[in-house]
Write a structure and sequence with these properties.
Helix content: 10-25%
Strand order of the largest sheet: 5-6-7-8-9
Distance between the termini: 75 Å
Structural class: alpha+beta
Largest sheet: 5 strands, mixed, barrel
Mean pLDDT: 75
Number of helices: 3
Order of helices and strands: HHEEEEHEEEEE
Length: about 170
């Protein structure tokens, strides 16, 4: 009887240690799970999320990563305990479904400039696998959809970007 109980305890300790060993082997984030979650959030918004580039190596989040909508075109994936954050671009579906009302601009806002000369502007560059953003200064007023000139850190060089919202612009190829 004692030998049977000892064998059972040994088997249970191996079964308990096995998940910990598997978890210890996988120290980087599981992007397939994150892709599934971001796709679910994007689908709820009538959009499609871009898969995360598998070359990104971040420490695995000890709790479930949070996914929130930044705007109608971007999701944020965050791991608060480790301090990392990724931006996931979203695209409109091929059927061009409407953007939820919470993210649309009123008609009056489309007619008036949303960026004024001298405003700080968050400029983004989005590709299928990553998103980069930085700050620039507007050198002219701009409405949503307008292409305006911006000045980065180098006062001599100007760049042009398309206004996407108040204080936001996107650099396109």
């Amino acid at each position: 009887m004692f030998r049977t109980q000892t064998a059972m305890l040994a088997a249970m300790s191996v079964a308990i240690a096995l998940p910990a060993a598997v978890h210890a082997q996988q120290t980087t984030e599981d992007w397939q799970t994150i892709d599934t979650l971001t796709q679910m959030v994007a689908n709820a918004m009538g959009r499609s999320a871009t898969p995360i580039d598998r070359r990104i190596k971040l420490a695995r989040c000890p709790e479930q990563a949070s996914i929130t909508a930044i705007d109608a075109h971007t999701l944020a994936v965050r791991c608060p305990s480790l301090g990392w954050r990724l931006r996931v671009p979203m695209t409109a579906p091929s059927s061009a479904a409407a953007i939820p009302a919470g993210f649309t601009q009123p008609a009056a806002a489309k007619a008036s400039p949303v960026i004024r000369r001298g405003d700080n502007v968050r400029v983004t560059i989005d590709t299928e696998s990553f998103s980069i953003s930085y700050s620039a200064i507007a050198t002219q007023d701009g409405r949503i959809g307008d292409t305006i000139a911006l000045r980065g850190n180098d006062a001599k060089n100007l760049l042009s970007a398309t206004v996407t919202g108040p204080g936001r612009a996107q650099l396109s190829d």
